[in-house]
Amino acid sequence: MPTLKDIAERVGVSISTVSRVLANESNRSVNSQTKQKIWDAARDLGYPVKPASQDQAPTVKGIGCIVSTMQDRHYHPYFSVICEGIDKELARNGYKLAFTHTQEELKRPEIWREVTEDPQIEGIILIEGLDGKMYNHMKKHVKQIVGIDVSDPSIPTISYDRVEAARMAVAHLVDQGHRDIIFIGGTGLSGNFEREKRYRGYKTALEQAGLAVQRQYVLNAEWEPDNAYRLMLKFLEQPPVGQLPTAVFAASDIMAMAAMRAISEKGYRIPQDFAVVGFDDNEPSRYTVPPLSTIHIPAFELGVVAAKTMLQCIHSPYPLPVKILLPFEPMFRQSSDWRVPKQP
């Protein structure tokens, strides 16, 4: 069955724009030519939605999605795969993905009203948390909420063990003989590294190996690849006093790729001078030079299971909020395939 993503790719717009047009939202500034292209593509592909007449409101109910950690983007190699899983599973069951908003977009009053007041929205799938005040308001006004990587025991959640996944990545580097390992990541909504699960996994792996966290090796890129690239360049240009680290663990593949570019530009070899491990296993990671070691996170399946859980909550709610943990898998490739020679 065709999905919103299929229509968006054909027309060359975002999934969010497609969902808004097909939902007949009159408060959106989409030009008439683009609207017509979207309707034409939906009809050609056989998407199961038709325009509502002027005297009849749309009857197709939908599920909304909020991606909280993206700034103002509608494509991301990790989050977009989750949204694709949600969209396909909803479509398979006769539902539609009504919208996909970022946390930044929720600051706009018209979008906030859409999220919390639209009677056609039966539930919201929330990816990775939300500002506390906004979240509490949403819980009071939205019929059903399912979280993906959301720390709230009062709602159904779908997740994986981030701490253990990150610990495994760093333990792999330690097993290869690395003792000085850079961490590149961000603090997220909490603003505190100690609450960030991938950092906690990094710290745990070092402690288990009898190694201390060295603050000069913790780089806060705020989840932005541009920041990761610049911080890595600066680190290599002005390294701390002492021995240069020999490995990098980045809390996402896109930040790992940015760090790899900086390392290569400065003339260092991967993995002989710097081993690099990322996190997510997004599709481009296997095509870097060398291929990137990473942790495979089942992003598409996270979306599918979240959609299934939402439909279960709508039609036959669980007696208590469920927590579903999905498995992850290490994918250690050439970027970390180098054992550090033992010191004499």
Gyration radius (Cα, Å) is 22 Å
Number of strands: 12
> Can you tell me the residue ranges where pLDDT is under 50 for at least 5 consecutive residues?
52-59
Order of helices and strands: HHHEHEHEHEEHEHEHEHEEHEE
Structural class: alpha/beta
**CATH topology value of the largest domain:** Rossmann fold
Question: What is the CA-CA span between the terminal residues?
Answer: 62 Å
Number of helices: 11
Determine the oligomeric state from the structure.
Answer: single chain
> Order of strands in the sheet with the most strands?
2-1-3-4-5-11
Strand content: 5-15%
Describe the protein in words:
- This protein has 344 residues and is of the alpha/beta class.
- It has 2 domains: 4-159, Response regulator (Rossmann fold); 162-296, Response regulator (Rossmann fold, 3-Layer(aba) Sandwich), CATH 3.40.50.
- It is built from 11 helices and 12 strands.
- The chain has helices at 4-11, 15-22, 32-45, 79-92, 109-117, 132-141, 162-175, 197-208, 225-237, 253-265, 299-315; strands spanning 62-67, 96-102, 121-127, 145-148, 157-159, 181-185, 218-220, 247-250, 275-277, 294-296, 323-325, 329-331.
- Helix 6 (132-141) links the parallel strand 3 (121-127) and strand 4 (145-148).
- Helix 1 (4-11) packs across helix 3 (32-45), helix 7 (162-175) packs parallel to helix 8 and helix 9 packs parallel to helix 10.
- The radius of gyration is 22 Å and the shape is elongated.
- The model is unreliable at 52-59 (pLDDT under 50).
